Amino acid sequence: MKPSGNKLIDRHDLSVTQFKEIIEKQPDNHVAWYELAFALDKTKKYDEALDAITKALSYLPNSTHYLQLEATVYHDLQKAPDELNTYKKLQSLEPYKESHYTAMVDLLVHSSNLIEAVKVLTLLEDQKGSMRSVLYKRPVYINS
Fold it and tell me: Domains in the chain, please, with CATH?
């Protein structure tokens, strides 16, 4: 007998219908809006995905999880300036997360804005330096 696996894995088209039904009954369910946005992005319905993630963010504007999806949707829509703005917000919310800086640098280099890219890299190095000093100042506990 040949294993068939779960045929529903990655069937985001089915998720779209399900999350739309949930939203009809619970229009303020930000999780359903986020999941709808994710499914729409996976089915390449990027404009609809942007509308859905915008709605989710209207409930939780500083959710880094939601903002990361917004950046992905902007990337898929090839809206680099909007994607960059989202990464700037993410960087302000999570200043020690290196991936936000590298995403910003990639976008800036791609748009030939090398001076700004260097500024972001400098900011990253400054953050790494301040993180190192915090780590070095932490008390060390020795088990006896």
Answer: 12-62 (1.25.40.10), 79-137 (no CATH)
